[in-house]
Amino acid sequence: MERIYFDYAATAPMLPEAIRAYAETASAGPANPSSLHSFGREARSHLTAARDALARMLVCRADELAFTGGGTESDNAALYGAAWAQRRRDGARKRIVTTAVEHHAVLNACRKLEAEGFGLTLLPVDGEGKVSAADARAAIGSDTAVVSVMTGNNETGTLQPVAEIGRIAREAGAVMHTDAVQAFGYEPLELDKLPVDLLSLSAHKVGGPQGVGALFIRQGTPFEPTQRGGSQERNRRAGTENVAGIAAFAKAAELAVSGRAARRERAEAVRAALIAQLTEQIGSEAFRINGSSDPAGRLPHILSVGFDGVSNETMLMNLDLAGVAASGGSACTSGSLQPSHVLKAMGLSDPFCRSTVRFSFGMGNDTAEAQKTAKIIATIIGRLRIR
Ligand SMILES: Cc1ncc(COP(=O)(O)O)c(C=O)c1O
Which family does it belong to (predicted)? Predict the structure, then answer.
């Protein structure tokens, strides 16, 4: 059976070039970049090359990047790191302002900070999943330690006004964080222009390995490391670096950033083909698309669709049996089968949230797969209606 992978937002297949970079680096010899001998120096040179490459892509200084163990770790380190340091500097700064639609890596870190005594404000979103800068302005003040607003949402693709909110946060003396895990490689992220202090990245969403990420920490940002140990990553993230994984991350990132236009075009084409084919096969009234209706207001590779009267559990199971991989909400919410907090925050009813499937695309997909998937969905819906 031909299988179709429409779950790039959960994880992208590792690129052959990244696998090669991993293999070459891992087979080059023992590689602890903190060791002073020649082996260690070689390992450090791989690390330096990867950091320099990533810094060029992001238009930041190489020493403003700390490698981490993935997107979740970057988000946690950003929130705890900035919140604790801000409170230490100014005891009045005890509020975290974030959005109701963040990834759990941000939301659950915020909840932990709340349990530690920080105030927590969750900004609401409109029906398309977008936060308003006016709401952010009203919430951010002299008591705010950290503001965290994601660049693009992992369930709906909706983009947030990060630059505008970043300016508001900075005017108020708060640290601005953005989770750019899904946006990296699709949106321009030029840190010489973007008013953010902290930015999270993950390698496996762009064809790099799982368990590798980076956190941009702008020079001068109040930051206290979460992970304690050695002095790696300029004392911002203790622990021996995953040198081969980082080399592979840099290679995948380079291909994602240099091929950004082609990636956008491919994802947009597959997404549009799936919508067009669904309309033809089941009729436009049988499904509803969640997220921004403006192509400039969303990431191109994510399509969140609710199928009227069909639970996503049933739909996903049947799709899987037919060889199509998609997910309900984000990978982690689909595991728990809870209605998505993102869709709920957008005002969708529980039954509608439970009928929503997320398709997400990448360079390994084509429009013929979209056509085939729409036909499979039509067959599934037809079968379910007969019962
Ligand atoms: C927006 C967003 N943030 C953070 C993460 C977590 O990244 P990682 O899987 O590398 O821990 C994900 C992964 O699904 C994501 O989509």
Answer: Belongs to the class-V pyridoxal-phosphate-dependent aminotransferase family. NifS/IscS subfamily.
Total domain count, the chain: 2
The reply to whether ligand 1 has any atom less than 6 angstroms from the CB of 208 is: no
With CA atoms as reference, report the closest residue to 328 among 114, 21, 10, 59: 10
Q: Which domain holds residue 76?
A: 16-258
Q: Hey, whose CA ends up nearest to atom 5 of ligand 1?
A: 71
Q: How far is the CA of 223 from the centre of ligand 1 (A)?
A: 21
Domain boundary among 258, 273, 293: 258
Ligand 1 probe mutation, 205, 249, 330, most atoms within 8 A of CB: 205
Reported confidence tier of residue 386, pLDDT bands at 50, 70, 90: low
- For the stretch 260-314, pLDDT in tens is 999 999 999 999 999 999 999 999 999 999 999 999 999 999 999 999 899 999 9
> In this structure, what CATH number is given to the domain that contains residue 105?
3.40.640.10
* The dihedral sign for the CA sequence 291, 294, 298, 302: positive
Asked whether residue 177 falls in the same domain as residue 324, the answer is no
